[in-house]
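Input (Sec-independent protein translocase protein TatB):
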Amino acid sequence: MIDLGISKMALIGAVALIVIGPEKLPRVARTVGTLLGKAQRYVADVKAEVNRSMDLDELRKMKDTVESAARDVENSIHTSTREFEQSWSETTEAALTSQVEASLPSYRHPGKNWRLKRGATPQWYKARNGVRTKALSGAARVARYRPRKFN
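Output:
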């Protein structure tokens, strides 16, 4: 690059004083200073952007490795659960078929109280409205509703 020492800076200042003149030199120096500051800030922004993109690339690589590891773990868990479920179902089926065939009788419908069932009406509603909930035999009905003798 350009090597600017004190002697070269003094030479540039003297030439600028002669060419530009003493009245315009402060304004030109301010303008040159602001332009140099803007250039330095632009270079710093470009460096920061490059660093950010490099960090972003590293983070993407790290994210890809973590995601692939997570997928591998998930796949291994799924395969182990499938194997476990398959072995569990085989053992339970074998155990149940041997027990069911030996101990359970055939199904028989209970058939109880079919006359008393009146849908899904709650007991408190039946009691309030006087619906019979228990069947009475003929002898019990006669005994209950027989007129009493008063002595």
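The radius of gyration is 50 Å.
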